[in-house]
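Support reply, case 0932

Customer input (verbatim):
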Amino acid sequence: MFMVARGDLVRILLVNDSGNVHPMHLHGHHFLVLTRNGKAVRPWSTDTLNMLPHERYEVAFRADNPGLWMLHCHNLGHAADGLTMHVMYGGVMTPYRAGKTAHNDPE
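Our regenerated output:
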């Protein structure tokens, strides 16, 4: 869980230490791509970033859409194996549960 507050400017370093391609997707927001492999890029806005093997990206987004959102690999097998995280706004609650004990397994 990655906790944020409304209005925060959130910077995240995404690191692909594998030999696989990972299309990383952020729900509820668009992020601005700032660097690739430690070097500044001409920034662009997206909600999905196709990360090639061994790439590193620094991205940023404004926390302006309160909720509980996923940031995950869009290769669903990778997401099911754990390549996922949540962006959660402080004070936001959800009545839903996920996982095997809740019988609400996304895959």
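We compared this against your earlier run and they match. Two observations from our side: Residues 2-102 form a domain with the Immunoglobulin-like fold (CATH 2.60.40.420). The radius of gyration is 14 Å. Please reopen the case if you see a mismatch on your end.
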